Amino acid sequence: MKKIKIDFSKKMIKIATLIFALLMLGAIVSGGMGYQKLNAKVGETKYVGQLEMTRDKESEDFSEDATVFDVVYRQGEQKMIVNYSKEEYDHLKKDTIQAHQYKSQDGTNLFFTEKNPNLEKIQATYKEKMAEKTMFFFNLCSALTILSISLLIMIVFGQMFTTYEKSWFLSIMVLATIVAIVSPSESANGVNGIIIMWLYLMDTFLNILCELLISKQSKYNFLVSIAVELVEIAISLVLMYRFASMVVTLLFWIPIDILSFINWSKHEDREDEDLTIVRRLTGWQEVLVISGIVVFTVVVGYFISGLDIQTDFVMNRTVATWLAYLDACATAVGIANGLFIFFRFREQWLAWFISAILEATMNIMLGQYVLLVLKLGYLTNSTYGYIKWTKYIKSHKEERLTVF
Length: 404
Prior knowledge:
Number of strands: 5
Helix content: 55-70%
Largest sheet: 5 strands, antiparallel
Low-confidence stretches: 1-8, 398-404
Strand content: 5-15%
Distance between the termini: 45 Å
């Protein structure tokens, strides 16, 4: 029976390795196709005629410091972007414009304000159109690359994880891949949507891996967590939002990750050095934590909502205010969670539950649907982690469960 088990394990590794190779091949092919189309020459173009387009005022929300204004004109599914200086934009009165339509050899429609644009402008406009058309290929490349890395981790470190843990981790990443392809991210603040989607996928991948290691009471989760913090700081800077979370990440999460790694290293289980000893909160400690969260949410939420932060990712003022308070509450819960993890308290899993619900609410408000997959991972793994930690606490003597 033992030999059969070994052979079966080797067979599964071979299958997983083959799937990994196919995923990487798919990533290379899709990325190559996207690159080729994006950098293709426009070739000969044919003049079609004039087309009246209407100004899309709803898409305009420029900051006071802006020097270049990209105004969008539309006619059905067709659109043209015109760059204006500040003086030109201030004197812009007409809501319509006559666009000159050209068509490339591959059938791509190109629009210009002048009738005979030079070749350089034609090529630049064609590349902008190709960037929109090739977004699918680059998103597919990003998703397949991160999915293949996820599978590779399960192959190389397979002995560390149970069958359930492997299945959970890969299921979440497959779902994230599907959502990334079906619901691509739009560009924001001058950053291409492909880069934003890559950051979303990296955030999901690293967070899920970190969550899994926490549930296994592994101190190495904090090394992954530092990478998580860096990615989330990058997302906040790119999208110009959630500044409460970003500041707390810099001043709290990165230092607490380092300190937690040191503290957890001092409390290895005597029977299994890969496990860390964990414990639970008392009633009065829970009351203090809840009170602190409420005060933090009100004070920080009020302060952030009063800031005049310019971003084309959140244009509605009411939504921005709600986000400020939700972000403050999620940040407060996150701080409590960080302390729970540092002190090795089981209640950190309850904090993960609350945090996941708050984060999911903000993701829905902002249309960040790929990150909802991450919140699904939080909710399912928090249940798994709470059960594992509770069983461990019940099977160990309370006097061994010291804080420091």
